[in-house]
UniProtKB/TrEMBL annotation:
This is DDE Tnp4 domain-containing protein. It comes from the Eukaryota. One of its GO terms (cellular component) is nucleus. The keyword Iron does not apply. Keywords: Hydrolase, Metal-binding, Nuclease, Nucleus. InterPro entries: HARBI1-like (IPR045249), HARBI1_dom (IPR027806).
Length: 469
């Protein structure tokens, strides 16, 4: 406590300051005291400034109280809505069959726990990154998934959930590992758009090295999970016959760096790799064999394929033998074009002129089946445009990648995903709309005495006129 002497001293100094400055402000308390300070050398605010500071403090406190009250009101209103919604559900006659998860989801949406973004009919959101736009939940999400990944969000989540155990990355002391959904979305986006690693990795916020690793990881995961049900190679046994068709397509690529370029140079003067597929009339891919250079003949490719090996071992068709007219017995067969040799399990058209009506009718049915094959490759390459255009690829992983997109092709067919026919058209350099090149090479016509007579006469007459001139 302050003594009597100290109390009298403070009182005398206060009276002196009041008499000199007025209002409690002292300008000349004692000799050496600074102007604008009290006797102890501390600055003293005027009444106006004190009023302003007090008003600001009161405003801040009042604003905090208002926001706190508003927060309490929102929380109370949210709880009231949730209780009201639950009560209405419980009062319903079929409340017993109502799932608890559905009730909680409805309650969350009704209380505003799961806010929705701007609807697609009002404005389409753009963040600058395709990977970020996929995770925005609004009315345009499903359309965006179909545009960028060629599938609905539901199908994407099913594939991701099935492949997640094979794509989990180990958590370390460094940065956070990539999530399975991000890995699958990136690889699907690359196959669907055909963009380079430099462009699409930045769209998903991952590095180029990580993008290269996702090719191996995603293909391995899909082949492990869907190896049995994705490609029904063994079901050729049941489907073998007029509903199965053997055909091949060329996958165009840049000149391989570590392989002889002349081996991959096909007769259309482009570098390519042959993909040999067995398809049915439901547009499903039953078997695929990829990897031989584009210059390899169809006969050579079929002889070296696993399909031919299984046919020779008798494990390709395991159905019951069928007796055809004329006493011919067969366990199964596949339709092919004239690029393949006729064999016990590959049936090719007759071709030629002056055909018998039965032969002409058979060739007509073959042409119909060929149209279905072109539809398969149109849908397959139209959706996954990386294999439609010329691109730089790793020859070691190309067969696994194409097999993976064939499995995805079957999955999307089973899910009922529609195909946009506009993907089969493109604009050339001058803006003219034309069909895309599906890489289907027509077999070269065979030269025979019956079919080449008119051509031979035309050639001789042309040479005769050329020599005379």
């Amino acid at each position: 406590m302050v003594g009597a002497y100290g109390s009298r001293r403070l009182q005398s100094q206060w009276q002196r300051c009041t008499q000199l400055g007025g209002g409690g402000r002292c300008f000349s308390c004692r000799k050496g005291t600074m102007e604008g300070c009290d006797g102890d050398g501390r600055a003293v605010l005027p009444t106006t400034e004190k009023t302003v500071v007090a008003a600001a403090a009161v405003a801040i406190v009042r604003r905090f109280q208002v926001e706190r009250a508003a927060g309490r009101m929102k929380a109370t209103l949210s709880r009231w809505r949730q209780r009201l919604l639950l009560q209405r559900v419980l009062d319903a006659p079929d409340c017993i069959t109502t799932s608890e998860a559905v009730v909680q989801l409805c309650a969350a949406i009704g209380c505003g726990v799961l806010p929705r973004a701007t609807p697609c009919w009002w404005m389409r959101r753009r963040t600058g990154r395709a990977g970020e736009d996929l995770w925005v939940c609004d009315d345009a999400t499903d359309n965006y998934f179909r545009e960028k990944l060629r599938m609905s969000r539901r199908v994407f989540m099913e594939i991701t959930e099935a492949c997640a155990p094979h794509l989990q990355r180990q958590v370390t002391f460094y940065r956070e590992p990539l999530q399975p959904a991000q890995i699958v979305a990136y690889e699907l986006y690359r196959w669907a758009t055909g963009e380079t690693y430099d462009n699409n990795t930045s769209s998903f916020g991952i590095g180029r090295a990580s993008g290269l690793l996702t090719v191996r990881d995603v293909t391995t995961a899909v082949l492990r999970v869907y190896s049995v049900e994705g490609l029904r190679g063994q079901d050729i046994v049941a489907d073998g016959g007029a509903e199965t068709r053997l055909h091949r397509t060329h996958i165009y690529l840049d000149k391989p760096a570590n392989a002889p370029g002349e081996n991959y140079f096909d007769r259309k003067h482009r570098f390519s790799v042959i993909a040999q597929d067995v398809v049915d009339l439901d547009l499903r891919v039953l078997d695929v064999f990829v990897g031989y250079p584009g210059s390899c003949h169809d006969i050579r490719a079929i002889q070296l394929s696993s399909l031919s090996r299984r046919a020779e071992e008798g494990i390709l068709f395991r159905g019951s033998p069928v007796t055809l007219p004329g006493g011919v017995r067969t366990n199964g067969y596949i339709l092919g074009d004239n690029g393949y040799p006729p064999s016990e399990w590959i049936v090719v058209p007759y071709r030629g002129i002056n055909q018998h009506p039965d032969e002409e009718r058979f060739d007509t049915k073959q042409k119909v089946a060929r149209g279905e094959v072109e539809r398969v490759f149109g849908r397959l390459k139209g959706m996954w445009r990386l294999f439609l255009q010329t691109h730089k690829t790793n020859l070691d992983t190309l067969p696994q990648q194409f097999t993976t997109v064939c499995i995805l092709h079957n999955i999307l067919l089973d899910a009922g995903i529609e195909f946009d026919e506009n993907l089969l058209w493109e604009a050339d350099e001058i803006g003219v709309r034309r069909g895309v090149d599906l890489g289907i090479h027509r077999p070269l016509p065979r030269v025979t005495m019956l079919t080449s007579m008119d051509v031979a006469h035309a050639l001789r007459n042309a040479l005769g006129r050329w020599r005379i001139e």
